[in-house]
Every structure is written in structure tokens, then in C-alpha cells.
Fold this protein.
Amino acid sequence: MKRRNAGPPPPDGLVIVDKPAGLTSHDVVGRLRRIAGTRRVGHAGTLDPMATGVLVIGVEKATRLLGHLALTEKGYDGTIRLGQNTVTDDAEGEVTDSTPAGHVGDAAIAAGVAALTGPIMQVPSKVSAIKIDGKRSYSRVRAGEEFELAARPVTVSAFEVLATRREGETIDLDVRVTCSSGTYIRALARDLGAGLGVGGHLTALRRTRVGPYGLDRARTLEELEESFGVLPIADAAAAAFPRREVSEDEARAVSHGGRLPADEASGPVGVFGPDGTFLALVENSGGVARPLAVFVG
């Protein structure tokens, strides 16, 4: 594996990785730490080992953007198998029961998909990284503990069936989903199957987008090993957040953690100085724009 030559740390920025199957998000972070030659590497939102596609990685100061980027809308392509439940709600777990699904018609599938579109309450998969009293849910499953996860509000803004394949007593659906942060596609597969009375699980998943960052910007680990580079932090912030340009005096204030007059924006806003330098993320609160994170100084 190639590493950057020893010397100054890499520039602040994002790396959009096309994650391969079989690696955890933490595995990818470890690879990028070696390639980039720095420990300051993190990711915005995990992908299961089975899943492929867009994983947003922050390097150096850009790691402080990740918590805000993780809250953005995401896009997925996947395959749902109707007629089988698994312990993990995906193809990595053992099949727990099978129910013939050949009788389920296209109209019933469309109605089931519609019921899971829009603002919904979703119970996450138990084999997930959600913490319960400081312990990961999947760790509790492995320990044989009995517990329940609470439903949480998520938004599925689009849930589309692209193709339907009927083989014996199972049905495979190729789907495209656009959803809010915190939505589990495995849980959509499980709940679609449950609603149709035949069970269901996810057999393939590819994340196509995180906020403004899609597969068109993504690079494989092999490509990054050959030629490492980042999306500069200013470009990354400008693509993901509304832009606010400030005067020299305001730039000086916000660079030291000072507040700005509030504007009409909602959510995090990227603040840029007169020379185009990305200074901070701010958010309106109580009549002023308060810094969420400062990236200079």
C-alpha cells in the first residue's frame, strides 16, 4: 500500500470513497489514515460491511464537518427479497423463517411501498450500532440479551421499485430510496415484507449519495492509493451548506468564536471571508448567528 511521503500533514478536506463490500467503515478510515499519513481521519455515517458506495471521509480540520454532513439526505439503490426473514434483516444473517411470496401481486407491493414512504416511525434493526445505556445494540444481540428498540421518526422522501424478479416462492425487488439521516434500509426491507405477510430482507445495498456528494465524485481505495487528494474544505462546505460572505471585521470576529447578526438562513451556514477563506459554520439562535465550529486560527 502506498503512503504519502513524510512531511507536512495533508490538506484539510473531504475524500469521497466508493466503499467496497466486505469492509467496515472503520476499516476504510484505517486505510485512509495510512494513505494520507495522518490520524485525523473520520467518516460521516457508517455503511454496513455488505454495502458499497459513497462514504464521506474527513481529513484534518474537515473531520469537524462530519457531524453536520451526517445529518443530510442520502440516496440508495438496493435489492429486497420478499419471502424470507433473517436475523440481521439482511443477507449477512441466517434465515429465520420462510413464507411463500409467489402470490403477492404488483399492486400489493406498490401499496406496501407507499405505506413506507413519507414521514414514518421506524424501529431500527437490532443488529445496528445504536447505543442502549452505552452498549451497542449488536453487542447486546451477540450476548443473547432480550431487549426492544424504540421507533424513531424518519422521512423516506422516495421509495421506488425499479424491477421485479419472481423466482419460485421468493420475489426480488430492485429499489431506489431517498431518505433522511437515521433511516435503515434493512428495516424498510423487513417492514415491507412484514406488511405483506411474507417477510423480507435486504440482499444488496449501494449508497449513491450523501447530501451533495454522489458516486460521480467517489474514488476507490485503489485509486486513492495511486493518487491521494482531497476536496478542499472550502469547496466541500460550499457544496453542502448555504454560503454567507462577511466583511473583514466580521471575519475577524467569527475567527475568534464571535457571533454574527442573524440572517434568514435555517440550519448550519458556511461563513466565508472576503478572500474566499472558509471560516466557520454558524447557526441562527436567539437573534444571533452562533459558531458551531471554527476552522481558522
